[in-house]
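User: Could you go from structure to sequence for me? I need the amino acid at each position, not a summary. Structure tokens:
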């Protein structure tokens, strides 16, 4: 489930962070809420900042649910976001 969370959070960051910036996972906090006995799905809904600053933490909350819709796992991944150097933009 941690791998699923990192994949979902990373995809959300990649789709959201503008091309002028880069991101890297900085940390992850997880909660195992229920026993997972079915197939699982991971979703990430992050809050997009109004302005993309240099050097800040972007929180990417992820929930993993089973086929019954029960949340079995929750993670909050902190992504470190910074501007790309001018030569890499």
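Assistant: Here is the amino acid at each position, in order:
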């Amino acid at each position: 489930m941690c791998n699923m969370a990192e994949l979902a959070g990373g995809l959300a960051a990649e789709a959201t962070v503008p091309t002028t910036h880069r991101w890297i996972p900085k940390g992850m906090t997880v909660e195992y809420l229920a026993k997972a006995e079915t197939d699982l799905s991971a979703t990430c809904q992050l809050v997009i900042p109004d302005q993309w600053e240099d050097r800040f933490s972007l929180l990417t909350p992820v929930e993993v649910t089973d086929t019954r819709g029960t949340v079995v796992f929750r993670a909050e991944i902190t992504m470190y976001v910074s501007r790309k150097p001018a030569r890499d933009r």
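One structural detail worth keeping in mind: Residues 20 and 86 are 9 Å apart (CA to CA).
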